[in-house]
Each structure stands twice: as structure tokens, then as C-alpha cells.
Please model this.
Amino acid sequence: MVCHVRRGCLVVKRSVALGLALLAFAALGARARSGIPSPQEAKAAIGHLGPVPVPAGNPLTRATVDLGAWLFRDPMLSGDGSVSCETCHLPDHGYATPDQLGPAYPSKAERRNSPSLINVAYNLPLIWDGRAGMLDKQPLGSIGNVLHMNNNRDLLVEQLKADPTYLAAFRAAFGDEAVTTARIGRAIGAFERTLVFDDSPLDRYMAGDESALDGAQKRGLDLFLRGAGCIVCHNGPNLTDNQFHNLGVPDDDVTGDPAVMASVRFDAKRNGYQGWEQLGEDPGRALITKDPADLGAFRTMGLRNIAESAPYMHNGAFETLEQVIAFYDRGGGNHPNKSSLLKPLGLSDADKADLAVFLRTALTGKQRPGPVR
Ligand code: HEC
Ligand code: HEC
Model:
């Protein structure tokens, strides 16, 4: 089944409305309700991932996906031939890396954590600050970005044209040998649409198998939906509202490193951010909207297979899920612009352990086989 990017936008809008409804649900339900949420309750708040969104102009075929996988792994896409997409999005690390920040193109300092690409096709917008939209165009951003691959896209096109094996792969994927930047983006986008992971214990529970979660996982689910209110922002099938919030995540490792701050200011300058010269922090979403209300706000990340992609947050501030939970239990961090949705939770040690078990085990699924033709 083919669905359109536009319909993806509708899903996102629906999840905002759902988020607001759930806010009321979580506030009413916190602690007053007792008992484990039923599969139906979990399904209403979270639900199963639908068919992967595929844009009309880029059907998901075996040949486009194969070409995209090859490009994704090819360090020739970078300026000095040392870095591929996979260098920073490792398949055996949830398509993220264990590094706190970056890694970056050689001799540069990345200022953010490399995010997981698991279920990335369901995310809109993309990037921690939401600067990118289409999955089929984003790869061209990575290729040209001096902090990531630092390459010239037109030169890359000529280099790929000079390789007969690539020419054959472009012909197989697109019907002729024309190598264009748009086709490079579409092939990598097609490959990324195959990174769909579901059929987790939570999916099986939501489908009605009450034995799919054990006692600790069920108590963790209860906390996620009610007691700890995670569902307010991590809702819908990919466990994200696709919105931006300032959580006050500790930022000393960014602000305390002059090389990293140089990259922060450079990125702010090229985004036309006023006052970039004096910047003392990563402005986050405000870089794109220029709205002071968005200062230090970052995108809610999806939580499926979250066990695989430590460290966590836009700046990799937390090494473990236990640290993430302790942070939320404190009501988040300190920032003048912190979201009013965060409040101290008063979780017991047993609650924290159950929530960690839920995040680490109940959300981990396996890669879907289809629907590549
Ligand atoms: C040198 C490291 C590096 C390389 C190489 C790299 N990335 Fe990334 N990627 C990152 C970082 C860091 C971010 C977050 C950037 C930000 O928020 O400013 C990111 C973000 C992304 C996102 C957004 C994910 C989301 O959910 O928001 C996608 C998609 C992505 N990269 C795909 C790619 C592709 C495709 C390539 C190769 C063409 C690539 N990356 C190459 C480090 C890298
Ligand atoms: C107010 C909205 C909000 C609430 C409530 C919330 N989160 Fe988040 N979550 C976010 C945002 C936004 C981010 C990214 C923040 C950043 O990097 O600065 C995030 C990031 C995370 C991450 C790291 C994701 C990654 O890929 O690095 C985890 C894990 C997480 N949240 C778990 C939880 C849990 C567990 C709860 C409940 C105790 C919770 N969240 C409550 C908005 C929220």
C-alpha cells in the first residue's frame, strides 16, 4: 500500500490533538486510577505503526533500496572519503552511535548527538531542531554539511557517473543512467524507509496478548501512561508528538567546550540567527523559528528500540535510561525557558526500576520484512 507524504502530515496533526487529550487523561489519571492499563487503553494512547509513508514519486522497490543502502555505506559520499552515513548511524547501535556528540567530519566538532534512524520514515519534521522535512532531500543536507560529510554535491554526481557499477545500479533503480542529486536523495530515502522496527512486546500486548508483558513491564507501562506522564509528549505509534519542548537538559559539555561552541555559533550564523556572535548555548528550535519561546527546545524523539541508542538527548547528556528517568523524576533541569509540562514526579525506587525495564525491553521490536517490491 502506498500512502502520501501529505497524509503523513495529517497523522502528525492528529498526534498533537491526541497529545492534548492525553495531557488531560494523564492529569486525571495520575495515581488516582489504579490497576494495569488494558491492551485497549495502551492501544488508544500509542497504537501500532501503520504502513510506512511512501511519497508518490519514489516507490519503494528492491533496486532503489539496494542503491540507497550502498550509498548509505559508501565513504565516497564525504569530502575526504573517510565518512559514510553509517559512520554516524551504526546499524548495531540503533542507527545512532555511542558518542556523546557527533562524531563529526575529521577536524570538526559536532555539537549534537547523532540520532537513531529507527522508524525515521514516520518522523516529521526531521533533525533535533526540525530544520529538515522530506526524508528524500535530507541526505543532500548531510552530504553538503561541513560538520558531517563536507562534500560538494555536483562533484559527487560526476564521481558516481564515472563508476560503471553505480551507473548500472542507477539504471536498475530509476530506469536510466542519469545520476542526479535528487536521485541520490530518493535512493537513500528509500533505504531509510526500510528501517521500520515493530512487533515489540508492547505491540503484542496492544494486539490483545496479555502475556506479552510481564509484571514489571506492565507496571512500567502504567507509569509511562499515568503515574509519570511520559505519554503527554511520547504518544502515538512512534512514541513522539513530533513537537519541541525545552526540558532543561544539562548542557555543560557543549557550553564548556570552545571547539563545540564554535560549531554552535557557525551553525547559528548560517541559519541567520540574530546575536549568533554572542551565543552561549545551542538555541535549538529557535534557530529555525527565530521565536524566543522556542529557545532551547528540541524535538521529542521516538522511543521504539530506545535500549539500543544510548547516550540520550540532543547533546547525549545521559548515558543510561536510569539517568533519563532520574532527570524526569526531578522535574527536568534548569532553564529559564523550561516546559511547564515537567514537574517532579515523586517516583519510588521500585517505580524507577519498572519504568526502566519497560523502556529497555517492552519497546524493542524487530525489523519489518516488507513492503519492498
Ligand atoms: C559525521 C556524522 C554524521 C554523518 C556522516 C551523517 N549524519 Fe545524519 N545526523 C548526524 C547528527 C549529529 C544529526 C543531528 C543533527 C542536528 O540535529 O543538527 C543527524 C541527523 C540525521 C537525520 C535526522 C533524524 C531525525 O529523526 O531527526 C537523518 C535522517 C540523518 N541524519 C540521515 C543521514 C544520512 C542519510 C547520512 C548520509 C548521507 C547522514 N545522516 C550522515 C550525524 C551524521
Ligand atoms: C514535556 C514533554 C516530555 C515529557 C513529559 C517526557 N518527554 Fe522524553 N523527551 C522529550 C523531548 C523534547 C526529548 C528530547 C529533549 C532534548 O534532547 O533536549 C525527550 C527525550 C527523551 C529520551 C531520549 C531520546 C533519545 O533518542 O535520545 C528518552 C529516553 C525519554 N525522553 C523518555 C521519557 C520518559 C521515560 C518520560 C516520562 C518519565 C518522558 N520522556 C517524558 C519530551 C518529553
Observations:
- The pocket of heme C (ligand 1) is lined by residues 77, 83, 85, 87-89, 102-105, 110, 112, 114-115, 117, 120, 123, 126-129, 138-139, 142-143, 148-149, 188 (CB under 6 Å).
